[in-house]
Write a structure and sequence with these properties.
269 residues, alpha/beta, nine-stranded mixed β-sheet, binds flavin-adenine dinucleotide, globular, Rossmann fold
Length: 269
């Protein structure tokens, strides 16, 4: 029996991201949102592990009330219970503060359920913040071993063998449980919900965990903008200039020579 947690992030379903010029944070209101694609792969990996070994899959997200929709999506594709970690005090959190809050929320969920997690899955990275920091940072806060970029895994007793993506191919990394694993694009696709599972998910009760929750013991110095060492100097939408140069008509070697000359003229090489 495996007690599994998957941390999922609700992300904007668009590349047309708008940034608040004053607060330097993403404008999320009115923007269609989805479950972060790598988290959907992590959830599918978790549900397959549960189907093979038995147990339970819990999902958790830190975010505003609208993030409940992401949790309902997860409940419709195999998650058994869901927790929304939400509080104004968490607003403005950078990755260090986010990972700290999530690690405290894991302890709060374990206190509420009376069960500790055998494995925590995160996505390799979120497609909006894109830092890939939260997973490993959570492992550090909780003093857990972690393996990143998983594409598959096998379990043998309290040992997990993780297939880890590398530039050259893949590694097999063996880790003692409990552990944290971040998941990249898997060879299998996340499953689709059925009408029945979607309706059940819409009726499901999602437990909210706030900063005043007795099980949530946070150091106020580590929360929100105050607890975030990342100081955003400037945010701007880079202008996408289309004035590229296409070298046509020349044979390979000649084209390369021409490109080298152009780069040389531009003092790039
Ligand atoms: C100064 C500052 C202020 C910010 N203020 C805000 C703000 O007010 N609101 C806001 O939404 N963002 C804010 N951000 C962005 C926010 O810090 C990051 O988006 C967040 O920390 C996650 O980092 P990331 O997107 O790079 O995730 P990654 O590190 O790339 O995510 C890796 C994995 O961690 C897990 N994960 C990440 N975030 C969450 C989450 N929230 N819940 C559950 N699992 C998660 C997922 O499994 C994900 O795949 C702010 C950033 C800075 C620097």
């Amino acid at each position: 029996m495996m007690n599994i947690l998957v941390c999922v992030k609700q992300v904007p379903d668009t590349t047309e991201i708008k940034i608040d010029p004053v607060k330097h944070t993403l404008i999320r209101e009115g923007v269609p949102s989805i479950v972060n694609p790598f988290d959907a792969c992590a959830l599918e990996m978790a549900v397959r592990l549960k189907e093979k070994e038995g147990g339970k899959v819990t999902v958790a997200t830190m975010g505003p009330a609208q993030a409940k929709n992401a949790l309902k999506e997860c409940l419709s594709v195999g998650a058994d219970q869901a927790f929304l970690v939400t509080d104004r005090a968490f607003g403005g959190s950078d990755t260090l503060a986010t990972s700290y809050i999530l690690s405290r929320a894991v302890k709060a969920i374990e206190a509420k359920t009376g069960e500790t997690f055998d494995v925590i899955f995160c996505g390799k990275q979120a497609i909006d913040g894109d830092t890939a920091q939260v997973g490993p940072e959570m492992a550090e806060h909780m003093d857990l071993p972690h393996v990143t970029l998983a594409t598959g895994l096998e379990l043998e007793g309290r040992k997990m063998r993780v297939v880890r993506d590398t530039d050259e191919g893949h590694d097999i990394v063996e880790v003692e449980l409990p552990a944290l694993v971040t998941v990249t694009k898997t060879p299998f696709d996340p499953r689709y919900p059925s009408i029945k599972s979607k309706m059940a998910a819409n009726r499901a009760v999602i437990t909210e965990i706030t900063n005043s929750d007795p099980d949530m013991v946070c150091d106020p110095e580590c929360l929100g903008l105050h607890g975030s060492p990342t100081k955003v100097k400037k945010t701007f939408t880079p202008n996408q200039s289309k004035d590229g140069v296409i070298i046509t008509g020349e044979a390979g070697a000649d084209a390369a020579m021409k490109l080298a000359a152009m780069l040389n003229d531009a003092k790039i090489i």
